[in-house]
Design brief:
134 residues, alpha+beta, 4 helices
Length: 134
């Protein structure tokens, strides 16, 4: 067998788009994830009056999305989640066990993540950068 087909196959894998974690065929029953929650308290002009919340930074949804994508890139590079949680998250650092009965807006994506896979999900209140640890 010639070596070049294997090289082409590997090149195709590298250039393949990132899998949508919420679109898996068979979700897991239970996973453990770490999360960085990045919210906003300013709305885009024309939406609604600004929300004033002293517990969250003053950013609009686009700024929150940009920051969430930067954190996602760090996660995918292998940066540990704990320092990212401490620096950026609006919720306590740590991990969460998500099961089929969980009531979190990112349950579908979490249950489809592979071990060490990262994803970002937008909910009504924030962007959630997730990493499956178990």
């Amino acid at each position: 067998m010639k070596p070049w087909p294997a090289v082409l196959l590997c090149a195709a894998c590298v250039s393949a788009p990132t899998r949508d974690p919420a679109a898996c065929a068979v979700p897991y029953d239970r996973v453990e994830v770490e999360q960085v929650q990045i919210g906003w308290n300013r709305l885009d002009p024309g939406d609604q009056p600004p929300i004033v919340d002293v517990d969250r930074p003053s950013r609009d949804p686009r700024q929150a999305e940009t920051l969430a994508n930067e954190v996602l890139a760090e996660c995918r590079k292998g940066t540990k989640m704990e320092p990212l949680q401490q620096k950026y998250s609006e919720v306590q650092p740590g991990s969460l066990v998500i099961g089929t009965h969980a009531d979190v807006p990112y349950k579908a994506a979490a249950l489809c993540l592979q071990p060490n896979e990262c994803a970002v999900v937008r909910s009504k209140i924030a962007f959630h950068v997730l990493k499956r640890i178990r």
